[in-house]
C-alpha cells in the first residue's frame, strides 16, 4: 500500500507541474479554450486516444467481455474501426477548416435564415447536456477502480478526484487537458499490453476460456438472444457511436485545436488503429480474468481485481496511476468541452457579449467550478450502471449527425430541414425511452426518422443554393494557403 501511495504522490506532483506550466502559457481565451489551435500530430494522437480511453468504456464495456466473452470484443473494440474511420473521412478536416470553437458554431456557419438561431440553440442544448452528464459517468468508473485497488469508499473517490481535477484544470483549461492526455496515453500504450500479458500468463492463455464461457461466447458468430447485449444491441451501439461521435463536442474541440486540417485527419486515422487494438487487449484481458476470478458479483470489478490479485505491488501502483489518469484526463477533457459550449454558445453569445478575452477566461473558470459541483452530486447516483447510462445518454447526440453530415455534403439541405430533422428524431427517442422500447428500436429508428424528415423538408424547399452556402462549401472542402502552410508543421509538437 505504501508503494502505491508514493507512486500516486509522485504522479500528482507531475500533474501539478504540468497544470502550472499550462497556466503560465495561457494568454488568451483561445489558448484556454483550444490550446491556441497549435496542437501537433503527436499530442493530437495522444489527446484523441486518451479522450476515448475512458473508465466508462474501460470498466463498463470490459464487464461485457467478462460476462459474454467475444460479445465484449464487439462492444469495446471492433466497432471503433467504423466509428473513428468514418469520422476521419467525413468531418475531421472540414471541422478544422472552419476555425470554429464548438459544434453549435458549425450550425451557425452552415444554417441561416429565420430559424438559424433555433437550430444552433438545439445543438447547444444537446451538446451541453451530454458534456454535463459524462464526467459523473467516468467518476463512477474511477470509484470502482479505487474501491478495488485501494479500498477507498466511492464517495471519498468522487470528492477527492473532483477537487483535485478542478484545482489543476482551472488554470490552463484545454492546454492542461492536452498535457495530461499525453502523459496518460503514453502510460496506456505501455501498461495495457502489460495487463494483458499478466492475464494471459496467469490464465494459461486461451486454454482456460472454454471452462468458464459457453461456446457461443468464444465465437465471433452473432449472438442475438441476450437480453441487454444481443447482436442487435451490438449493431445499434456501433451505429449510435458512429453518429454520436460525429457530433461529440470533445472530439470536435480537438479537431478545432489542430495545427492544420491534415493533422486532424491523420491523427484520427492513427487513433482508429490504436484504439481498436488497445480495447481489444482490454476485452481479451477481461475474458481471461473470468478464468482467474469467475464468481465476481460485480463484473465491473473484473479488470481492477485482476490487477490487485496478480500484479506485483510496484506494478499495481503504476497501473493504478494509469487507470486514474485515464479517467481524470477524460473527465477534464469533457469538462473543457462543456466549458467551451457554455462560454461560447451561451455566455458570449447571449448573456455577456462583446467582452475582453480575459473576461471570458474568468467565465470559463466559473463554469468549471459549477460543473465540478454538479458532477459531485450526479456521480454518486450511477455507480453500478455505467454502461447502460453511457448507452442511453448518447442517443440524443447521435441525432446531430444528420444535419452535420447533410450540411457538409448536400448543398440543398436547408435550415428548416436541419431543425425539423433534429426535433422529430428527439421526439421519437424521448417517447421510446419513456415507454421502454427495446434499445435497438430507439436510436436507429430515431435516426431514420430524422433522415426522412430532413430529406422531405429539403426537397419541398427552394432548389436554389444560397451564396453563403456556396461559400461554406468552398471553405470546408477547399484548401486555403494558410492551411497548406500549416501542414508543413504537422510533425511539430
Automatic annotation (TrEMBL):
Pfam families: SSF. The keyword Lyase does not apply. GO terms for biological process: sodium ion transport. It comes from the Bacteria. It is a multi-pass membrane protein. GO terms for cellular component: plasma membrane. The chain crosses the membrane at residues 6-23, 44-68, 74-92, 125-150, 156-175, 182-203, 228-248, 269-293, 313-338, 359-383, 389-410, 417-435, 441-460. GO terms for molecular function: symporter activity. It is found in: Cell membrane. It catalyses: L-proline(in) + Na(+)(in) = L-proline(out) + Na(+)(out). Its main location: membrane. The keyword Transmembrane helix applies. Keywords: Cell membrane, Ion transport, Membrane, Sodium, Sodium transport, Symport, Transmembrane, Transmembrane helix, Transport. Belongs to the sodium:solute symporter (SSF) (TC 2.A.21) family. This is SSS family solute:Na+ symporter. The lineage of its organism: Bacteria, Bacillati, Actinomycetota, Actinomycetes, Pseudonocardiales.
Amino acid at each position: 500500500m505504501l508503494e502505491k501511495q508514493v507512486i500516486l504522490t509522485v504522479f500528482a506532483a507531475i500533474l501539478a507541474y504540468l497544470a502550472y506550466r499550462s497556466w503560465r502559457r495561457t494568454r488568451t481565451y483561445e489558448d484556454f479554450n483550444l490550446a491556441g489551435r497549435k496542437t501537433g500530430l503527436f499530442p493530437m494522437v495522444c489527446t484523441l486516444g486518451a479522450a476515448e480511453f475512458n473508465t466508462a468504456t474501460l470498466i463498463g464495456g470490459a464487464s461485457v467481455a467478462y460476462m459474454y466473452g467475444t460479445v465484449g470484443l464487439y462492444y469495446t473494440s471492433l466497432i471503433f474501426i467504423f466509428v473513428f474511420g468514418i469520422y476521419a473521412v467525413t468531418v475531421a478536416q472540414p471541422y478544422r477548416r472552419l476555425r470554429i470553437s464548438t459544434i453549435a458554431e458549425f450550425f451557425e456557419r452552415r444554417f441561416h435564415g429565420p430559424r438559424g438561431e433555433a437550430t444552433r440553440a438545439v445543438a447547444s442544448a444537446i451538446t451541453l447536456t451530454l458534456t454535463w452528464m459524462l464526467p459523473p459517468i467516468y467518476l463512477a468508473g474511477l470509484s470502482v477502480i479505487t474501491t478495488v485497488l485501494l479500498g477507498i469508499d466511492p464517495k471519498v473517490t468522487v470528492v477527492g478526484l473532483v477537487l483535485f481535477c478542478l484545482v489543476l484544470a482551472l488554470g490552463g483549461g484545454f492546454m492542461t487537458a492536452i498535457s495530461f492526455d499525453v502523459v496518460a496515453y503514453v502510460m496506456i500504450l505501455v501498461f495495457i499490453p502489460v495487463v494483458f500479458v499478466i492475464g494471459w500468463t496467469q490464465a494459461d492463455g486461451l486454454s482456460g476460456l472454454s471452462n468458464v464461457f459457453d461456446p457461443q461466447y468464444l465465437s465471433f458468430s452473432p449472438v442475438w438472444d441476450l437480453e441487454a447485449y444481443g447482436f442487435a444491441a451490438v449493431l445499434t451501439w456501433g451505429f449510435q457511436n458512429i453518429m454520436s461521435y460525429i457530433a461529440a463536442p470533445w472530439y470536435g474541440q480537438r479537431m478545432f485545436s489542430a495545427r492544420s486540417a491534415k493533422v486532424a485527419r491523420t491523427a484520427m486515422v492513427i487513433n482508429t488503429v490504436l484504439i481498436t487494438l488497445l480495447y481489444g487487449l482490454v476485452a481479451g484481458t477481461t475474458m481471461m480474468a473470468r478464468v482467474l476470478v469467475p464468481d465476481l458479483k460485480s463484473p465491473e470489478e473484473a479488470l481492477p481485481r485482476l490487477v490487485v490479485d496478480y500484479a506485483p505491488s510496484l506494478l499495481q501502483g503504476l497501473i493504478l496511476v494509469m487507470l486514474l489518469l485515464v479517467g481524470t484526463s477524460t473527465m477534464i477533457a469533457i469538462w473543457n468541452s462543456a466549458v467551451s459550449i457554455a462560454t461560447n454558445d451561451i455566455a458570449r453569445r447571449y448573456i455577456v457579449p462583446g467582452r475582453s478575452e480575459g473576461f471570458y477566461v474568468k467565465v470559463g473558470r466559473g463554469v468549471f467550478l459549477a460543473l465540478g459541483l454538479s458532477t459531485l452530486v450526479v456521480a454518486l447516483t450511477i455507480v453500478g450502471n455505467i454502461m447502460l447510462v453511457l448507452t442511453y445518454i448518447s442517443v440524443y447526440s447521435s441525432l446531430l449527425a444528420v444535419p452535420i453530415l447533410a450540411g457538409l455534403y448536400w448543398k440543398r439541405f436547408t435550415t428548416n430541414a436541419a431543425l425539423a430533422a433534429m426535433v422529430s428524431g428527439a421526439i421519437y427517442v424521448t417517447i421510446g425511452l419513456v415507454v421502454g422500447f427495446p434499445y435497438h428500436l430507439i436510436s436507429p429508428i430515431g435516426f431514420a426518422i430524422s433522415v426522412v424528415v430532413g430529406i422531405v423538408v429539403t426537397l419541398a424547399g427552394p432548389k436554389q443554393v444560397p451564396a453563403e452556402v456556396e461559400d461554406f462549401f468552398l471553405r470546408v472542402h477547399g484548401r486555403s494557403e494558410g492551411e497548406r502552410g500549416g501542414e508543413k508543421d504537422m510533425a511539430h509538437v
